[in-house]
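Figure 3 (text version): structure tokens given as input.
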């Protein structure tokens, strides 16, 4: 019996995040269609817990590299590729670009590169060095992008041929994320509707902006409570800011949760305060859960939402975010109407099966050029 194709996935980190969760869902959907090896360059394999037991899956940390800078790292990566002999190499974002570079040497492996967005250091503009490196390293590769803004970057800045590029919007398990069902019981201090956010606590998520907006609400006497779901390097700083703003009696830092769908159902409003995004899964999950969304105007967020919810997409300003939240906090019927509209939009356009089938054809090498 012929073994299923071996797909080598290289992640800068395999911590729980949008790209990692998408891969886990894809692997679970197709089971033994492929064998998967995941390399996490930072050694973090937290998302492996989401891979079903019947999926052929191996987790590896990055191969050690000897001193010698980029040339030596490329040599070591090339050796790892020869040793593993994958049928397909899948890299993700800037953090894995050296694997794309090493794969340029002949003979090379069929290569699929995914880009999901930029870090806080490129929230305003991309680094010129990275633009040129992508332009060189991704020539001849299939490149997958979830948002129209990234598609424009790939065409205009990276100058990649259109035939290499595939726009694949993120999709979601609409049976799992839905308005009805068990809601988490959250011990949130204070009184008022619950604003919820779900994010890795990293600088680009700009949760300090959300906290400052909540500080404005508090000063204006608007009742609310805030739940922050997720963990990361910014947590201690954000908790200190919460206390400094006098929000300690209204904010709950919940950390990582295993069943976020139940937590969404406990929210009244979903908030996204990021400085950079493309097509965030958290917004899709909130929409599918029947929530109104207040968000900064980043990536494709405005285009994702139902038309009636789009006035609540704000500039990257504390006061604008606070005003949008205030309007929804004071208007329960509007919250309900926007939640129903967002659920309808998610059902119409963001079912995960379409995403799965497109990714499967890309991995198998049967997708038609766009």
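Below: residues designed for each position.
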């Amino acid at each position: 019996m012929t073994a299923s194709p071996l797909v080598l996935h290289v992640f800068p980190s395999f911590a729980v995040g949008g790209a990692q969760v998408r891969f886990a869902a894809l692997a679970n959907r197709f089971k033994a269609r492929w064998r998967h090896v995941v390399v996490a360059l930072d050694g973090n394999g937290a998302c492996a817990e989401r891979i079903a037991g019947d999926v052929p899956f191996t987790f590896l940390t990055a191969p050690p590299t000897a001193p010698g800078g980029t040339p030596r790292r490329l040599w070591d990566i090339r050796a790892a590729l020869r040793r593993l002999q994958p049928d397909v190499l899948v890299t993700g974002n800037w953090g894995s670009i050296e694997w794309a570079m090493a794969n340029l040497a002949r003979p090379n492996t069929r290569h699929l590169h995914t880009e999901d967005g930029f870090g806080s250091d490129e929230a305003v503009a991309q680094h010129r060095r990275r633009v040129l490196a992508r332009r060189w390293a991704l020539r001849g590769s299939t490149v997958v992008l979830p948002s129209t803004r990234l598609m424009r970057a790939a065409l205009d800045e990276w100058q990649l041929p259109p035939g290499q590029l595939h726009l694949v919007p993120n999709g979601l398990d609409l049976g799992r994320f839905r308005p009805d069902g068990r809601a988490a019981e959250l011990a949130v201090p204070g009184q008022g509707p619950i604003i919820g956010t779900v994010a890795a606590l990293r600088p680009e998520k700009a949760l300090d902006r959300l906290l400052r907006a909540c500080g404005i609400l508090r000063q204006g006497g608007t009742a609310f409570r805030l739940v922050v779901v997720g963990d990361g390097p910014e947590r201690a700083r954000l908790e200190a800011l919460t206390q400094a703003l006098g929000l300690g009696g209204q904010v709950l830092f919940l950390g990582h949760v295993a069943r976020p769908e139940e937590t969404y159902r406990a929210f009244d409003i979903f908030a996204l305060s990021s400085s950079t995004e493309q097509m965030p899964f958290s917004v899709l999950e909130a929409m599918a859960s029947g929530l109104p969304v207040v968000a900064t105007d980043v990536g494709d967020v405005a285009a994702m939402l139902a038309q009636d919810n789009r006035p609540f997409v704000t500039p990257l300003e504390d006061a604008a975010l606070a005003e949008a939240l205030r309007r929804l906090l004071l208007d329960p019927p509007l919250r309900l109407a926007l939640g129903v509209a967002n659920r309808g939009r998610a059902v119409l356009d963001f079912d995960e099966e379409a995403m799965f089938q497109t990714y499967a054809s890309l991995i198998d090498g049967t997708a038609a050029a766009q």
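The chain has two domains: 6-171+351-364, 194-349.
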